[in-house]
Amino acid sequence: MNGVRHLYVHLPFCAHRCGYCDFVTAVGRRDQHAAYVDAVLRELEEERHVLADPLDTVFLGGGTPTFIALPELVRLLEALPPAGEVTVEANPETVTPELARALQASGVTRVSLGAQSFRPHLLGVLERGARPEDVRRAFAHLRDAGFDNLSLDLIYGIPGQTVADLEADLADAIALGPDHLSCYELEAKPGTRFTHAWGDELARQAEAMEDYFERVVAVLTEHGYRWYETANFCREGKRALHNLGYWLGRDYLGVGLGAVSTIATERRRNTPRLARFLAGDYEREIEELDDDTRARERVMLGLRLDDPLPIAGLEHALDPAGLARVEQLGLAERGDDTLTLTQRGRYLGGAVTAALLG
């Protein structure tokens, strides 16, 4: 099948910008939601020629996609090309029975719910608008609407979080029975409001992160979840297929404010300036990707998965001395034209990949 098979749609609007967030967002702007949907659909029409028909996946991320006025969200969803998996990110406090039914009726097959934590004091640190009861209520609304593929996002490494807090968050998440969990170490970028407020505490917690990560893996795998990607866990047949496309190095088209596309030898990023985007001026940054860059990215992303990485055609990206060293240390195993990180190698993740790439 010819054409790009993965489409990302960025919806930047949210009720509040959390202090740790460095995504392209716009707070409020309800009077611009309709114009934004118009602009996204215009860009999509201009780029439709690069897309396969049908698509494998569509992913609506943000921002908070479900913060957009519901009629506009439905209008957007109904205008998108058909795809086997259609995911929408949602904040729990935005999910009502009406919204859940509308998503189901508009062809959404999967919802990713940003819980982050079930501990009220940690949600306060993160400046999240939802409370634990909002997460449970939203999850119930989505199940009642017929969704059989629901994902929960959790964050660990939050300032003030204890081991008991982490274990309680995992227990509360598992009790809801999600089909998929994404568990991320809190990454507060330099210069964000969050880093200014919590920098000392983040530094103190850094040494505990490896232990926290291993606890997350141990608990979720003990409860039957497959640790299929560094930060992602699923029930059988419930991998996030859109993100899997990224990790497998497939091309994707991104539309919307600040959206990134990677197609063949070109990576481009749309303007993060809302006024320019609404006017149809995408002011794109263009990066040309050579074979070496694509091969290194393929190794870096592919080794995040539990499936063996086929390395035929990627050998030039691997450092022979580094490969020998990580194999000797029991951090990676080489098969017939494949490379796989061992469990210990997966825990160390980026450090092992860096050694392999030299």
Q: Can you characterise this structure?
A:
- The chain has helices spanning 33-47, 70-79, 97-105, 120-125, 132-144, 163-176, 193-205, 209-222, 241-247, 274-278, 291-302, 320-328, 343-348, 350-357, and strands at residues 6-11, 13-14, 26-27, 55-62, 83-90, 110-116, 150-156, 180-185, 226-229, 232-234, 253-256, 260-263, 266-269, 285-288, 309-310, 332-334, 338-341.
- It has 358 residues and is α/β, with parallel strands linked by helices.
- It has two domains: 6-247, tm_1862 like domain (pyruvate-formate lyase- activating enzyme, Alpha-Beta Horseshoe), CATH 3.80.30; 291-358, Arc Repressor Mutant, subunit A (Orthogonal Bundle), CATH 1.10.10.920.
- Helix content is 39%, strand content 22%.
- The protein is globular and about 60 Å long.
- The strands form four sheets. The chain has a nine-stranded mixed beta sheet with strand order 9-10-8-7-6-5-4-1-11, sandwiched between helices. Strands 12-13-14 form a three-stranded antiparallel beta sheet, with no helix packed on it.
- It contains 14 helices and 17 strands.
- The model has no long low-confidence stretch (mean pLDDT 92).
- A hairpin with a 3-residue loop joins β16 (332-334) and β17.
- It starts with 5 loop residues before the first strand and ends with a helix.
